[in-house]
Predict the structure.
Amino acid sequence: GNIINNLVPVDYSHLENVCPLSPVKVTSTTSLTSCSVSSLVGTEAIKSDILGGEWQPKNCTSRFLVAIIVPYRAREKHLHKFLSFMHRFVQSQNIHYKIYVIEQSTQKEFNRGKLFNIGFLEALKEKPFPCFIFHDVDLLPENSNNMYACTETPRHLSAAIDKFGYSPPYYRNFGGVLSILSHQFSLVNGFSNKFYGWGGEDDNFYNRLRSALIRPVRFDYSVSRYCTLPHEQEKPNENRHNLLKLSSNYVLEGLNSTKYTVIQRSDEPLFAKIVVDL
Ligand code: NGS
């Protein structure tokens, strides 16, 4: 079917000059023909038009308003490549977006799910984003038809990653990059805050959706392609399988119990930076 049929636009019925739906092809200098990320270095994003990570088309009104949330700690080179590539990519789709980098302080083990919750809460304080994309910093999309907007049900954008031979490692995998309407994220009470260290928080999130009878979708694997920026394997959370079994009542724990302290907040040229203690 037509992959962009199910995208949910903001209410633009009263607006004139709405941007065309089909994405502009990313130019050959920035597109990836293989997963050689070196080709990305030096691509200049249209920096002057980006303010604190936010951009919108100049000559038309975007159908989409999206917050892109990137959990982060000590991956400076990845972040640089991610930003220089991603701005171009999303801009080619005529999307009004803002990139939030949620940086966890050195305190405690990394907690991807909790950082997503924080990004969601902080972004909504600024603007009523109807759609969120939760995005690992080490993944770069290869196909400009992989729209950075929300479908009616949550979507696994990164279904086909190079390191897994361009198909999901297992059917229910929901890691890497996903999009979800804000009201659906609230409905399942966001991510669990309990998963410190690597693994399991994405599986837990998938279970939350399924227990709310929400069935995630994927675009075709030829569209959902991503390149991984190489790094060392993170230390797995030894307790992740237990946590996965235990966490059954999603109303009790998640977005509604996310406690944190913002210790720094700044508008960087290419992103909004929020540093937090968990
Ligand atoms: C599973 C993890 C997921 C993870 C997936 C792929 O085993 O969190 O591997 O990981 N689940 C558990 O550990 C319970 S990847 O190789 O992409 O880093 O997303």
Summary: Helices lie at 76-91, 112-126, 182-187, 201-211, 240-246. Residues 169, 173, 175, 199-200, 202-203, 240-241, 244 surround NGS (CB under 6 Å). The longest helix spans residues 76-91. The two ends are 43 Å apart (CA to CA).
